[in-house]
Structures are given as structure tokens and as C-alpha cells.
Amino acid sequence: MDRQEAIEFLLEHYEAPRNKGPLPDADVVLPGGNPGCGDVVTIYLKVNRHQDAVERVSFEGEGCTISQAAASILTELAQEKPLSEIEGMDYNDMIDILGREVVQSRPRCATLALGTIKAAIKKYRRDRIREELGEGAPVEDVPERFEI
Amino acid sequence: MAEYVNPDVLVDTEWVAQHLNDPNVRVVESDEDVLLYDVGHIPGAVKIDWHTDLNDPRVRDYIDVDDFERLMSRLGISNDTTVVFYGDKNNWWACYAYWVFRLFGHDHLKVMNGGRKKWIDEGRPLTREVPSYSRTEYRVKETHREIRAYRDDVLEHIGHPEPREKQIQLPSDHALVDVRSPGEYNGELLHMPDYPQEGALRGGHIPGAVNIPWAKAVAEDGTFKSADEIKQIYESAGVTPDKDIIVYCRIGERSSLTWFVLHELMGYPKVRNYDGSWTEWGNVVGLPIENPAAEKAEKTAG
Fold first, then answer.
1. Residue A114 domain-assigned?
2. Which of A114, B30, B280, B287 stands the most exposed, by the fewest C-beta atoms within 10 Å?
3. CA dist., res. A16 & res. A35, Å (int)
4. Residue B195 pLDDT > 60, yes or no?
5. Does residue B280 sit in helix, strand or coil?
């Protein structure tokens, strides 16, 4: 993908975002913020427990073009994916998906959605352990908000 | 009612609308959000990406004269072209680009008052069509080092104090203006509120600096305040036209706006922008700082 194709790819998602809006039955709702432009992205995650995979994921947010386009692109990629696959994604992967040449100077904008969805999965896993072992279970605490 | 000393450096949106087809005028968009230009821009406007067009990351400095000439030629700007900047975020990056152009000695520069937001709020047209202009043979005739302060200039400006001195007084004919938010100035934050707290190892400000946030000079609609209001804001803090003044922020973009207000609009003769700003000063070994938040915490603990 050359620079112009990457710009068009991002703008297309910015102007017609996929999966934008709340999920009423989400297992986890996690707000994230905020790289260089005052960006906010809230991830709504519904998990297929049997397959340990994403059942639906959506987002709401405001901010710069890159952060909002990245949230749209990521939520499109993440539908029905195993949670482990998303957990294994590196921030560099995200930058490559979006178009390195365009977003490399704005890595925080580009990776806000990924960081937030990973934090949402972490919260989901903690909540399941607590569900199984009770509130007093010794599990790692997860912040209620992801900050990059 | 006082007028700006140099009202010609500012144009309104209507002036720009009237000059869209003027071959002697080049409208330039410079934003923090690097894709905004691609979402839509003023018809005929070209883009300057402050990060990739104006900086040379190999030396953490601006591009050199040759690269600036190449950039101007590529954008179809000749030595006589009037360049009008506008952008997002109250024209921070527009003023930053303006300051860099002035560093390289371009004479005919203006800022569109109110920036991109005002143009859009007024329902004026945007386009995604990227214009193409004939290349020019741009030549830098002189550079203006006198509007830029380096770290050593700032150290000299504050009187080369003994780093561990508790109270540092600036020479009486000098002023140093920290244009960041009060939280950054006081050492509670390393960056603007809601932005990632990064960039410097220490919080606080350069000794002797007064805090006049950049936004004080800007009205709610993003246009610059009147000359009377601006005069009152700066002079009440001891920043008067007779002084040798240095302004700084975190990376030099917000202070470019304050430099524009004082030096260009208000005609203060001696104003320099310290673009190394807090990201440099806050990290340098051996340079003194004042950190009111830390001092307060020490007193409370003690």
C-alpha cells in the first residue's frame, strides 16, 4: 500500500466508520484515551465464551482522523477472531495495517484502539476468574480506563 | 482603542475567499491532525506537515536551507509569493509554520484569523482536490536567527545562574514567558491536560519565567483578541515591548502562536521563540528549574 492508498484507506474508514455505536449486551465496556490529539475511544466487547473469541466488538469515540479510522479498521478485523489472536497483536502490526508511512509519526493515535481492546480483553478475563472464584480471588487488577 | 502594530499579518476568512485565484497568494494548511487536509481543505491550498516537511529528525532540528528551497519550489512558492497559513487547534501549527518560514527569511507571510474551524463554521467550501503548481526557483536570501533562542541563549537570558540557587532573578530588561498550562508550569503535569505525560523527566518551569498561557491571547471563536486586550494581558505580567523576551512551551508550537502575537501582531521588537522548550530544558543535566508543586509537597511533608 503506497502513501496515497493508505491515506484513502484511512479517510474512507474515518468518514464511514464500521461498527460505530454501543453494544447493549457487551461483556466489557472500556474507555481509552488519549494520544496527541485528545482522542477518546470506548470499546464495547461481547465475547463468545465457548470459543474464547470475539462475538461482536464496536466502538464510540472522538478525536483525530487516525485514531478514529484505526478504531473502525481494528473492529472490522477483530470480529469473531480468537481473543488470543488480538492479545498477540503487536503495536507494530497495527501500524503496518494502517500504513506505516502515514501513521508512523502518530503511533499513539494509531494504536489507541488496539491498546483499548487489549485492555478490554484483560478485563473480561479478570471478570471471568472473579466469577469462577468469587470476589476475593487473587487476580491482577485491571484499570477501568485505558490510557496510552 | 489601540490597533495591532502590524495588522497586515492577519487576514480574515473573507480576504482568503477573495484571493483563492490570486496567483501571487499561496494558501497553506498546517495542522496537528495530519490527515485533516486530506479530509478537505480550502480550494487551492497546499499542505505543510510540520513533522515531515519542516523537521530533520537526524539532527533534531529544522530542515536546512537547501531543503527549504526545495520545499518552496515544490509548493510553487516564489520569493515574492504571499503565503497565508491556516490550520486546526487555533492556528498553533499555522503559527509554527509561519515562524519557520520567517526563520528562512520569507517576507510576505500572513495568518488567516480563526483558522480552519472558522472557515468551516462559516460554511465556506472545502475540497479534496490537491492542486498542482508550477515549480519555482526559490532562493533563501537571508535567515533570521534573531527570532530563535537556543538553550544557551536562554541560559544567558536568565543570567547564567548558579544551578542550585534558590531564587533566580531575571535581568530587569528581560522577560521569559512560559505559555503552557498552569499545571505544566507548576510542575504537576509534563504535558497539556489530557495529553500523554511524556517528553521531559522533570516538571516545572525555567527559573524566572512568568506563566501566560497561549490561549489568553485567543478569543472563544479562535480569533485573536483585540490589541487592547492583548496589551493588558502581557503588560500586566511585566511583558512589555521595551524588553528582550523569550517565549517557550513544550516543543515550540504553542509558543510560536505567542511569538506571532507579540512580535508580528503587536510589533514587540525583540521576541525569540525557544523551540527546544521544556522537552529540552526539562531533560538537560545541570540546568536549573523551579518546580512549585514539588516545593509545596516538600513543605507539606517537612
1. yes
2. B287
3. 22
4. no
5. helix
Domain residue ranges in chain B: 7-143, 146-301
Please enumerate in sequence order all residues whose Cβ is within 8 A of that of A69, keeping only pairs 6 or more positions apart, or say none. Answer: A9, A10, A11, A13, A14, A17, A98, B35
Residues 208-267 of B with CB under 8 A from A: none
Q: What is the pLDDT of residue A36?
A: 46
Torsion of CA B243, B266, B98, B17, to 10 degrees: 180
Q: What's the total number of domains in chain A? A: 1
What fold characterizes domain B146-301? Answer: Oxidized Rhodanese; domain 1 (3.40.250)
Say if the Cβ atoms of B32 and A15 lie within 8 Å.
Answer: no
Cβ(B239)–Cβ(B175) below 8 Å? yes
Residue B106 has pLDDT above 80, yes or no: yes
CATH number at residue A121: 3.90.1010.10
pLDDT at B286 over 80: yes
Q: Does the distance separating the beta carbons of B33 and A66 come in below 8 Å?
A: yes
pLDDT number for residue B17 = 98
A67 → chain B, closest CA residue: B33
Nearest to A11 among B39, B194, B196 (CB): B39
Which of A11, A36, A64 comes nearest B38 by C-beta? A11
CATH classification code of B7-143: 3.40.250.10
* Fold agreement between B7-143 and B146-301: yes
- B interface mutation test: which of A64, A72, A98, A112 has the most B CBs within 10 A? A64
The verdict on B126 touching A (C-beta cutoff 8 Å) is no
- Classify residue A42: in a domain, yes or no: yes
pLDDT for the residue A54? 98
A7 is in which domain, residue-wise?
A: 3-134
The nearest alpha carbon in chain A to B196 belongs to A35
pLDDT tops 70 at residue B193: no
- The residues of B annotated with a catalytic role in the active site are 249
Spatial CA neighbour of B177 closest among B239, B223, B130 = B239
